[in-house]
């Protein structure tokens, strides 16, 4: 049976890609009956990351925010819903024990299509598929490792929801999670991986918005396709996006890119920082895991630094020293260099305004004008330093024209730090797809990096500057509260401007 779209406005994929993605025809039992129209897929395939929830270490009790997960799971099933960005002929899931200190045993896992109706945990039984690992129903994940499943037959459409259920038969300390999934999941007793609806004694107490075990989903596109990764903090993670609506800004970007056969994977972590560990390890420490080794990633959007600037002096890091501009620049340059060495194009995003951030909370001192002065210096370097392959000026897009140190009220979630749903939409809309998807930098020894097809995706959008062929400008520091008018730039793609 077919997976349903919940947003029918999403255009279909180009001819050729869409023919292989007519439905997620998963039938009851262990294997799906092949479709007569389904083209044969090679045993290896072309795998692309299509969904992600970056792993974080579970913090101890007493931290500023509750972990929202039990300390241990034993003979319990975790059921989660995820919306993939790009479809394919087959898919596989990725489970993580990244911060575990002992082996983690998976007893059974299933994949299914959510069943529309009043119970969000319900699945369509005729879509239920067993997930195997090296041909076996159970598997063990060593400490610090991840586990990739065997391919599950499809095909699956882009922008489709899937439900993943995982049974843990043994006592398992919960040490790895993704804290803010912006999607309701459930933890229930026993093996309920095959249940149409979960048996629960207390629906509220047995639900969580944290992600457990499931850290990635990959699809076999059959033909060459690629992904855009977005690495960031709570703004990218969607801290104030409406729950269960897929309204984080990378979700809106995924909607724009799906018709072009490009996936989006969200490597945002709430509380993340570029240089220092926060509510997850620092960006340079997790770059390889969350971006560089993700299959098919050819472009990377970087929106990091506001927590590096603002955390010091708050309840998060009362005695910590604020990094200097040069230290932040060195961190950005290292991140760019490592991505370039893997043939990945890097787009820098400016840091958004935050005056008055988090009022009435233990972090009401998050903002200070000295911190904002450093934000302006960082933004000036991102815009004019020439280190990034392109720049998206989300600061210019989201700030209040009459009060540039604050978010525009239209885009503000209400906490004066995080955009709401409309702000997230505006962030995704301001990105120039031509600049985003231009040919990546050449990687030594990789001829394919020079042969990436150039996509004509329409006129360049406001506030995106491409540095790939522009003369480099020296860093230019703006005064706090300064205002710069965004400029339309024709990005370079395969040696020619995109009309």
Characterization of the model:
The structure is a single chain. With 499 residues, this protein is of the alpha+beta class. The chain is built from 9 helices and 27 strands. It has a 6-stranded antiparallel beta sheet with strand order 8-7-12-4-15-16, with no helix packed on it. Strands 19-18-20-21-22-25 form a 6-stranded mixed beta sheet, sandwiched between helices. Strands 1, 5, 10, 11 and 17 form a 5-stranded antiparallel beta sheet that branches. The chain is globular. The protein starts with 46 loop residues before the first strand and ends with a strand.
Number of helices: 9
Q: How far apart, in Å, are the first and last alpha carbons?
A: 41 Å
The biggest beta sheet reads:
6 strands, antiparallel
Biggest β-sheet: strands ordered side by side in the sheet: 8-7-12-4-15-16
From the spread of the alpha carbons, the general shape counts as globular
Helix content estimate: 10-25%
Radius of gyration: 22 Å
Strand content bin:
15-25%
Mean pLDDT: 85
Care to count the β-strands?
A: 27
Structural class of the secondary elements? alpha+beta
**Which consecutive residue ranges, at least 5 long each, have pLDDT under 50?**
1-42, 444-463, 468-499
């Amino acid at each position: 049976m077919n997976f349903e779209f919940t947003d029918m406005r999403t255009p279909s994929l180009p001819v050729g890609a869409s023919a292989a993605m007519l439905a997620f025809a998963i039938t009851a039992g262990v294997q799906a009956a092949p479709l007569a129209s389904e083209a044969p897929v090679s045993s290896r395939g072309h795998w692309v990351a299509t969904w992600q929830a970056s792993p974080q270490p579970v913090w101890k009790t007493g931290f500023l925010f509750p972990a929202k997960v039990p300390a241990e799971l034993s003979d319990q099933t975790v059921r989660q819903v995820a919306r993939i960005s790009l479809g394919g002929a087959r898919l596989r899931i990725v489970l993580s024990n990244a911060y575990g200190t002992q082996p983690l045993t998976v007893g059974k896992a299933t994949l299914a299509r959510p069943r529309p109706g009043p119970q969000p945990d319900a699945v369509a039984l005729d879509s239920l598929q067993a997930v195997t690992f090296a041909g076996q129903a159970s598997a063990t994940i060593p400490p610090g490792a991840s586990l990739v499943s065997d391919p599950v037959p499809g095909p699956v459409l882009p922008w489709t929801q899937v439900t993943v259920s995982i049974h843990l038969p043994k006592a398992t300390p919960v040490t790895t999670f993704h804290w803010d999934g912006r999607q309701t999941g459930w933890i229930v007793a026993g093996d309920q991986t095959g249940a149409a609806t979960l048996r629960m004694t207390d629906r509220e107490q047995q639900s969580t918005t944290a992600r457990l075990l499931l850290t990635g989903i990959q699809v076999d596109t059959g033909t060459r396709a690629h992904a855009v990764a977005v690495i960031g903090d709570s703004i990218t993670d969607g801290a104030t996006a409406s729950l269960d609506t897929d309204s984080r800004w990378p979700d809106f970007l995924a909607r724009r890119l799906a018709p072009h056969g490009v996936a989006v994977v969200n490597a945002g972590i709430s509380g993340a920082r570029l240089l220092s560990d926060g509510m997850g390890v620092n960006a340079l420490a997790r770059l390889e895991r969350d971006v560089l080794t993700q299959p098919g990633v050819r472009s990377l959007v970087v929106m990091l630094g506001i927590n590096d600037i603002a955390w010091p002096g708050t309840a998060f890091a009362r005695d910590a020293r604020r990094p200097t501009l040069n230290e932040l620049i060195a961190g950005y340059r290292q991140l760019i260099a490592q991505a370039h060495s893997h043939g990945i194009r890097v787009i820098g995003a400016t840091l958004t305004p935050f005056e008055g951030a988090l009022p009435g909370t233990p972090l009401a001192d998050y903002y200070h004008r000295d911190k904002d002065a450093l934000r302006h210096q960082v933004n000036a370097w991102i815009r004019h330093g020439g280190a990034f392959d392109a720049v998206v000026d989300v600061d210019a897009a989201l700030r209040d024209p009459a009060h540039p140190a604050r978010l525009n009220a239209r885009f503000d979630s209400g906490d004066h730090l995080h955009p709401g749903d409309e702000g997230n939409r505006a962030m995704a809309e301001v990105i120039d797809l031509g600049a985003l998807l231009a040919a990546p930098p050449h990687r030594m020894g990789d001829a394919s990096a020079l042969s990436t097809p150039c996509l004509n995706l329409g006129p360049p959008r406001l506030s995106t500057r491409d540095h790939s062929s522009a003369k480099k400008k020296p860093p230019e520091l703006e005064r706090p509260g300064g205002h710069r008018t965004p400029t339309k730039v024709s990005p370079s793609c395969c040696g020619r401007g995109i009309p």
